[in-house]
Amino acid sequence: xxxxxxxxxxxxxxxxxxxxxxxxxxxxxxxxxxxxxxxxxxxxxxxxxxxxxxxxxxxxxxxxxxxxxxxxxxxxxxxxxxxxxxxxxxxxxxxxxxxxxxxxxxxxxxxxxxxxxxxxxxxxxxxxxxxxxxxxxxxxxxxxxxxxxxxxxxxxxxxxxxxxxxxxxxxxxxxxxxxxxxxxxxxxxxxxxxxxxxxxxxxxxxxxxxxxxxxxxxxxxxxxxxxxxxxxxxxxxxxxxxxxxxxxxxxxxxxxxxxxxxxxxxxxxxxxxxxxxxxxxxxxxxxxxxxxxxxxxxxxxxxxxxxxxxxxxxxxxxxxxxxxxxxxxxxxxxxxxxxxxxxxxxxxxxxxxxxxxxxxxxxxxxxxxxxxxxxxxxxxxxxxxxxxxxxxxxxxxxxxxxxxxxxxxxxxxxxxxxxxxxxxxxxxxxxxxxxxxxxxxxxxxxxxxxxxxxxxxxxxxxxxxxxxxxxxxxxxxxxxxxxxxxxxxxxxxxxxxxxxxxxxxxxxxxxxxxxxxxxxxxxxxxxxxxxxxxxxxxxxxxxxxxxxxxxxxxxxxxxxxxxxxxxxxxxxxxxxxxxxxxxxxxxxxxxxxxxxxxxxxxxxxxxxxxxxxxxxxxxxxxxxxxxxxxxxxxxxxxxxxxxxxxxxxxxxxxxxxxxxxxxxxxxxxxxxxxxxxxxxxxxxxxxxxxxxxxxxxxxxxxxxxxxxxxxxxxxxxxxxxxxxxxxxxxxxxxxxxxxxxxxxxxxxxxxxxxxxxxxxxxxxxxxxxxxxxxxxxxxxxxxxxxxxxxxxxxxxxxxxxxxxxxxxxxxxxxxxxxxxxxxxxxxxxxxxxxxxxxxxxxxxxxxxxxxxxxxxxxxxxxxxxxxxxxxxxxxxxxxxxxxxxxxxxxxxxxxxxxxxxxxxxxxxxxxxxxxxxxxxxxxxxxxxxxxxxxxxxxxxxxxxxxxxxxxxxxxxxxxxxxxxxxxxxxxxxxxxxxxxxxxxxxxxxxxxxxxxxxxxxxxxxxxxxxxxxxxxxxxxxxxxxxxxxxxxxxxxxxxxxxxxxxxxxxxxxxxxxxxxxxxxxxxxxxxxxxxxxxxxxxxxxxxxxxxxxxxxxxxxxxxxxxxxxxxxxxxxxxxxxxxxxxxxxxxxxxxxxxxxxxxxxxxxxxxxxxxxxxxxxxxxxxxxxx
Length: 1170
Hints:
There is one protein chain. By secondary structure, the protein is mainly beta. The protein is built from nine helices and 68 strands. Strands 55, 56, 58, 60, 61, 63, 64 and 65 form an eight-stranded mixed β-sheet that branches. Strands 10, 11, 14, 15, 16, 18 and 19 form a seven-stranded mixed β-sheet that branches. Helix 1 packs antiparallel against helix 9. The chain is extended, with a radius of gyration of 43 Å. The two termini are about 15 Å apart.
């Protein structure tokens, strides 16, 4: 008996042991793996669980390996990933400790296969276009961090901010440097270095924290954020920071060898020179601080930067500021009297279309030098229509437009530049400020070579568009530096010839064109008109008319050689836009033919309003600089030869221009040439710096249809603008036929336009300025402006007789409100305009066609400042619930509500409280339709149709319903009081008895008190259905408050996710800087794993150590990075394949129990035997 029991017990033990082994085997074989990486590869950004990784779970391929195939992966660099085991139990990469992300490139689009061997932890990536980098190829390095103010040029964790690209100190040195100037004291400047605008390769510290100052220190590949604390270091505001990255000894294989130096450069305490220099740097880093003012470019040495003021005694301190460009400060030495300020710009994807800027300075301290002129003030002074003016003390202005665009994408360009002379030696500080008022970018249509209207974007239009700035601007920097006395000055004449060019092609918004060109010939000789096809961004500068070159003597010196004559004119004819000097306009130099000079332009195409002048050039010398200059005289036609000669070509032909120096006469001949001798006006356009209501918001659109004036009489034109806000700087001119060939403005030096009186206009004159503030209208006051042009007495030969009249009236406050009704179930909106105080009905009609309404829920929204709700009802539903506290309602009935044919679903009655535009919106949350079962009287179950569910409408809803939103004047219901008209108790005909005895004073039948029955209108005061307190069922949305899946505290399980993965080692520490602009986590710009921002991928650092690097996932979810460890996770992230402790414990308990049972049986038997 006992033997049998013992045998049975042993058998049971064998079975249990087998089960334990099986459990262990199943446990080991049950591991799952998925690929987690950058979104560009996996479609999900560093997923942490299988539930969030999409279809990136790896498949066992039968040979012990797992694989995942990504189809048609696009060409790209820096693809990164890791393999994740068992929902984050372990993160497996490459390198020591498997901590590094696996990085690869794709050279041609292809399928990419990721293979993983769980036994060896080996990862492979294959594909036809796959390239696995063996070394790091650096195109550029960018400083990335919590940029604000001058720090990082205000680029907050922007990987692709070219303005923060470091400069290699010498070719091939692998030492990179960048300088940030005039910074304020701050304790939390955060940054990292990133290669090639990607987080794939970046450098920081082993752990996020303070970086050493003014000394070299080692960097960690894909490390944590570095923090500069200048507050604790004891610095004052106004210092510069020089960042130097030395990769000369960096090994991509070991990821070691990178180092950094942060120099703090002050004006009174230069940084000690570095005692150590990068091994591969051509020049040592111990460059002593220079005594001269700092250069505008970063120092070429990696370690030290010249102090801003090293001289014992300083001269003038100059601050160059701007609303668009960063501030730059320089300190001149006592003997430096001249300096230059340049604002540099570069864009991407789109080039400059037009711009307008003003540079302001203190005219008591500074004076623009002769080198401040049109040709030096902008990168492309001779392209498009560009106007420059420095005549007004304290102000330099420029405006330009080019329909073919100014190239600003292929290189950095001079956006604005000026050179100044210090005229007050006692001054200690001054400011030069650039106000970039307008800057627009666009793309060119390759077919027309002109701007594509749809592509035009504003960087600034009297206000910065930050989104466009971030998207299209790559460089905005300010350079300022002293000018040495040896520098040669620019010969103004030859480079500013265009200033004399026809006025109409340059906008005069900045001031009359005539003043910019210091070498322009005398006023009387400059062209007064501009090319017909040119458009001015701010106002076509009609003519540089009175500019006399500052360097030109009052009497022209005897020429050393014969004068050179050049034909200057419109680009369509001359090929160049009003270039009159022999160098720039060499192709249009005239040939001497006896006493005349001629130039033939072959195969000139048919066109209207071609314009020219002839320019006489006499070689001379600038008396101040000794430079060679061209003393110019511009000859046109008319009085004092001011007007451009205008002609048409009716068909292609050769055109010959002839000039007689003896008489200054110009002739144009050709088979199909017709010289314009009279002006034929087809239409007139008001053209200027359009803004909102002014000129319908169209800026300098010479052919803008919206600004074409109405012809109210023969040769009289008029246009009115409403809701024009009062301003002191509205500019405009009148242009004929959509061209600048014929335009009218004011004479030079008198640009203020009179209001309320007729005034004479100048043909092709300067811009007129309408200053309504000076009229007493506070800035911003809405006005109505009417412009009238009277050409009745205009004489084309003399160009005289045009008049204008401007009328300005304050706009009467409106008492009208436009109400728009909309709904998610209505395809069209209803609208109506009413006066303040009116009662208005807004209602929504629903037609359910052959079905009926089973249930409906809705919510109404409106502006309570504009409308006052009087009533809210569901007119066609008697048992519906309406809540006037939150403007909602609902109704449900199995017997259905009949809306066939169209009935009011919801009606709201309002009283208009305020003028303006406002909207009333009905959001139908749920709407179910059904058909009635005639037998049951209830909805037929099979006919139900959910038209709206949780505010989402069905795709075919409008096939099943018709609906309208209506706005109408409210009409009080005709509650014709009940016809209980006073009973006809016509007073008794007891006419007094004929016995006229006085005493019988008519009986006191004081008319029966049947005083009309007090049918005081039935108090059917709408049933006091005090709106069911079922205030919209308080379906306080199920307290199933989104399952508190407070993101598993295993945030990237402490399963020691490889430190390199977590963005921890990534760029910006979990982005949001703690103190600086809260936009990036403190560990990294939450965009990539260790190698990338700490918020994307779990820290590859073994989470066991509760440091910031191992908890990026937790940090990203609002947890402390120190709380991410999970109690049962193996340390160091090296989870073995051993049996789970839970399974093993169970097996051991069973074994112990069986062994104990065997012992009991044995001793019991022994005892029994005894």
